[in-house]
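Sanity check record (used in CI):
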Amino acid sequence: MSYYVKTNLEAVFQRGQILAPLLETSRLRDEAFGKFWLQFSSLREDSIQSAQPAADQPTPPTQGEIQGSSDLIPPILAQASGLVLDVGPGTGTQMPLLRSPAIKAIYGAEPCHGLHEELRARANANGLGEKYHILPCSVAGSQLNPVLQKNGLDRTDRGVFDTIVCVRVLCSVPDMQQTVNELYALLRPGGRLLIVEHVVNPWRTAKGSVVARALQTLYGALGWSFYVGDCCLNRDTEKALRTAGEWESVDIDRWFGRTVMPYISGVLVKKA
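Expected output for S-adenosyl-L-methionine-dependent methyltransferase:
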């Protein structure tokens, strides 16, 4: 919320856009979120840059080794290969984990144009300048399909990508089930969907928390989604993933079940 307030004040007093808070709410909200995400992702840079290179195939982490959600990302992204779709990469925090020679090309679908400059800079800094292609759109079919065609990637019944990466992004897509269904269709047979996502607290199970679930509801009522880039705290992402289509295998782990931001991480392999 502080980023949103500061952005509105800057618009009025520094840029002289007196009516912007009333007439350009959407633009200012996007600008504020861009600033928030730059700071949010940079706070997690150390854990990602200190991780093993993607080609080293690190062993899965244990509960005792996991200190935060960023620790879940390296062993998952290490499994990326072939043609990769990076869904909502933001500022490209996970870029150091996508340098494996097994990856042929990466297409990052990022609708927030305010993040593109930082995303491109990180791609260049990690030697991925020619391999990483920024798509200025969301992964909704109506936006993504035309952009893919412009980049010479025609969608077919056999899919397009060998790997699709979803890291902290499915919480904010407008229609999660439809989005996941479309991602499934974009995967080639045998392709992998790599996920690290925060989800609704499993409060009905022994691993969940009634208090944490209540706090998720409270934060939502106080405007969490508006101030944090349409992020939703109450999505059953695992259920949406499992019902998206036929999977050869589903390997999903749950983490931080007693908190307001429990996570799932894992790999889903599309049936060949």
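The chain has a mean pLDDT of 87. If this sentence no longer matches the regenerated tokens, the check is flagged for review.
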